[in-house]
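To whoever is covering the structure queue this week,

Two jobs came back overnight. Logging them here so there's a record in the thread.

Job A:
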Amino acid sequence: MDRLSLLVSNIQKPARLSIERAVLYTESMKETEGEPMPIRQAKALKHVLENIPIQILPGEIVVGTMLPDPPGAILFPEGVGLRIINDLESLSERETNRLLVSEEDARVLVEEIAPYWENRNIEAFASKLMPDIMEVMLSGSLFVLTELAGISHVAVNYPYLLKRGFRWFVEESERRIDEIRESGCEDARKLVFYEAAKIAAEGIIRFAERYAGLARKMAEEEDDESRREELLKVAEICERVPAEPPESFHEAVQFVWFVQCALHQENYEQGISMGRIDQYLLPYYLRDVRDGRLSKKEAFEILANLWVKPNEIVPPFDSLLELYFSGQATNQALTIGGVDSSGSDATNELSYLMLEVTKAVPLRQPNVHVRVSSKTPDSFLDKLAEIIAEGKNNVGIFNDEAVFRALRFAGVKEGDAWNYSTIGCVEISPFGNAFTSSDAALINVAKALEYALNGGQDMVFGYEFGVRSERSLQTLEDVISAFREQLSHIIRLVVTGSNILEYANACVKPTPLLSLCIEDCFERGKDVTEGGARYNFTGIQAVGIADVADSLAAVEHALKKGYTLEEIIEACRRDFDGYEELHSVLLSAPKYGNDGEADRYARMILEMYCDEVSRYRNFRGGRFTAGCYPMTTNVAFGFMTSALPSGRKQGTSLNSGVSPSTGMDREGVTAAIKSVSKINYDKLSNGTSFTVNLDSGVLGGKGKDVIRALIRSFVELGGMHIQFNVLNENVLRKAQEEPEKYRWLLVRVAGWSAYFVELSRNVQDELIARISCRL
């Protein structure tokens, strides 16, 4: 078996629920009661890194596991980890995200871990400050506040870390502690910060030393001479990094992975991203190749090993969260291609090599994001299009010019805006000096329309979460005004909840290690959860934009046909039962995604949303930023949304991101791209998702040319993000019938990749319904 096959085989067994981190973390937190919380968190992390079982898997030359015996799910009891207790009996048999769990581990979780955390976790802290908002959120219909689980979603500043090494942080922390004490501890908070920083840095150094010892021990017992030499080299590398700055390409990659491992022990495991990896690894690669220490094949193997490693973990979602975040992705993104901080093309040898690795390792992680611009070389675009045409549905594409304008609009300096990185699904951020919390909340904007049409009343569950109104709706302008009022109300609730949760995170879960990984935090002596980063954003996402746009266009159309608003509203309340003729009229109205009249409503609604979001400041002293992507909340929110004037029936999925509603892009892909490009992306500084689904059977041999042309057109028209699913409807339906035969069938969802058979049936059905190849 070749190395790549061996590496992939390491993560192909069923995933398990891992409680080891939770046990060790809880042990330490019990022992440090009464100490400052940043120091408690640092000690807990160090305790985990010093004691969690370690292993080097067969064939590995980049080592470090995030949990014993991968693959598995890391449990975070200080966040929402205890929710999994409700699923323990069915965990290994449920429809999606199955996890194996032993009886003993289940007992320890229920009897030893849960009792300590049930009144100490983030939810327990925050719920006392916002009981009314918790009630709304727990209904599941209106919005999701993800910071309840913890704060992550960040691009790590690896150039900053690689330059220093973690021993520097230990020594510099000691120096600053001495200075603070000599000054009379004028700023005791900084004293605590640097004490915590020192402990966290010592913890990650010790973690690597443990792997060095294990590698040497395994080398002594290894009969195969080649593997023995590999293990000895691994030991030498682990003895050096991440304590010291790396001196080789292999050391630099290993450095990155050790940091990823440690950050995933400290922080909730969503969206901790590697940043512009082809840029910061390039000097090491070029130097090693020039000096004859590294061949392209060796670099390929090192990178392939790195590409496999993020697949060792899956999220421990309970069944309810699976409705909103189906697909088992932890969204460790990395960014390649694009321009540099001066706006000049920065595509390089590693950019091409990393595309080759992505082609060879078609796994759901890492989330490979490719930056393109008008300056991107044709040869690079050809390679990218070729990979996509072959059905490697694990790539997202970002338009540099559109992203630059959005970040500048958000107040980011020019050089930082050009040097942006991607995070998680489709989020954008200045690289390495920003803490965006870019997936803090997702909002069901279609509910705002439902409330607008019904005086603030929820027509599915009867909740009165909207603004009560007795106003009579007579015109389309009345509907838009009522929608704006309801949307403003919902956003205010979300902002309030997000700010309380950010305060809760700062109090309950400061992050000493992450604060070393974002520039300016260490220099200021200020934790990232308190605003230590240079840029501080909080990203909230709109879900269901096209459904609202289509509804407004349909109301306009039906009114012109002689129907009244009262009739339209009543038809929606009855899910069109008895209103079949009106339903047909509403469905025949112009729809967003066809380069036509309805597109102006999508632009209008998004601008309305963005303007409202940008009014607010966050707990960390920054601003709220708007995005438009759904994860799979468009399916879950759709369950809970009434029929809409667009003709969409109650319970069906909402649209995904800025993509047209399912089946409504009647004029084909090129028209959809034109519609999507009409949106004002300047105000969407938290990112958007646009998915183009193409039938591989129709594309035939022209796939690469078609996709390259579509990407170029998208960039020229000014779109922000585009991703492709090259699929075959017959294959997907066979996968539904015989999932065991299609275990590794990869599809692109709403900014990340997932194995088709691990998606819920409703998400699968939506993907099948979206396949189109009308060019």
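Job B:
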Amino acid sequence: MAETEKRIETHRIRCLSKLKMFLLAITCAFVSKTLSGSYMNSMLTQIERQFNIPTFLVGFINGSFEIGNLLLIIFVSYFGTQLHRPILIGVGCVVMGVGCFLQSLPHFLMDRYEYESTVSVSGNLSSNSFLCMENGTQIFRPTEDPSDCVKEVKSLMWVYVLVGNIIRGIGETPIMPLGISYIEDFAKSENSPLYIGFVETGAIIGPLIGLLLASFCANVYVDTGSVNTDDLTITPTDTRWVGAWWFGFLICAGVNVLTAIPFFFLPKMLPKEGLKNNADIIKNDKKEKQKEEVKKEKDGITKDFLPFMKSLLCNPIYMLFILISIVQFNAFVNMFTFMPKYLEQQYGKSASDAIFLIGIYNLPPICIGYIAGGLIMKKFKITVKQAAHIGCWLSLIEYLLHFLCFLMICDNSSVAGITTTYKGMQQDLYVGNTILADCNRDCNCPTKTWDPVCGNNGVSYMSACLAGCETSVGTGINMVFQNCSCIQTSGNSSAVLGLCDKGHDCSMMLQYFLILSAIGSFIYSLSAIPGYMVLLSWNSCTYIFWSFSGFHMFTLGNFEMW
């Protein structure tokens, strides 16, 4: 008798340790998958500049992850519980690693990145051929045909990024549904929320690490190590700058592959956590065998799967939860995806600073919102129906709140000949050919090249030549242009590389925008906990994550009617 009890106790300890091993492994998997996702979203502007592709194509590349996820999610979620779930999750992590590696591959297959400039990076800077030269022979007139301004894709290597992102979406498919269902099947009912809380913590830590990694990589030049960065004439704040986007993908690939290793050593099934005696163990084993027999008796998708889907779509609570998901992902997630580019173009921030600000202002409110939402649900004992309504209204408020962001804008940069006359007066963007003026008409300047300089009068110019500058001192980014005839100021007129700062008013608008986004992040996370309550109200056998173009659906079944 004593030997039997000892064996049961040993079996229980082994079960608990393996369950906790799985909990640690799935938490790391959540960290790795959200790390890769947040890094990908943060590098969209760098990828756009590297391949010189239009923004709509960037959006398609970003959405390709959902395409990959959509291809398998329904089948993996529904039939995955019949297979070895830990191994499926491990294979998914490896596939994600392969996808991340594939995304970094174009950097090693392409030539070095070359940005548009009037100043030659490798040429003889002492010749001053890029300055105002009255006896010059080369001149470019402004383009009159709008079609000439359309981007020409430099390389089709962006297809690697697209395919890699699809593969990453395919690999991510089994992690969430099979991981959560595994915990629900073998953990105590009272311990399950705590374990899922640990997993969700990993989903918060991952984006934090991803944003920090993206901030670092965006500040490093894309071809660092193969070019002399001292000769560069652009800085990270320049719209032509491309950071080392490929480096972070290699790190994400390594992290995903390492995360997969523990799953291959975990068992297909575990005894239910907390069983007290041998009879319970035997009873639990019988139940598991009965479940397997029932699954084997199902003779096809039309007999069980389609009726199950029909019952879900006819449930009002489920459909309300779908509405919550649509509103949330079309407001918060889509804006969060393109926020780095928006901060760069609207407020003149570098990609590195933009990504860092997003992490600082948005992740802490999300963490606080998760905690506050959980406390509210526990204190007021919110029911499933109440949780669905709360989540829906909070999501709607957060969605409407994002429209206020359109009010937090800055004025256009003062660029002579485009938004401002050479005399300093504001003008419309499309007022005809005003790029050339009396002060630079005889300089034989290229007028199709964007290589901005900032004059000491606070006005930007398309190039040092169009500013009428005749001499220069220094090299690289430290170059200073002097004797600029178009810069009207007392004393010596000079200019430096780069656009002028947008000023204090724009900085204040940036602060308002970030505060508003922080409030939106808090409301988003506050509504997420009621959403999870609706999600987990179904007995966890099936999880369906249907996502395409910002449309996501979450489901756990077997289905129950209210």
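Note for Job B: The beta strands are 453-455, 460-461, 471-473, 480-482, 494-497, 542-543, 546-548, 551-553, 556-557.

Please reply-all if you pick these up so we don't duplicate work.
Q.
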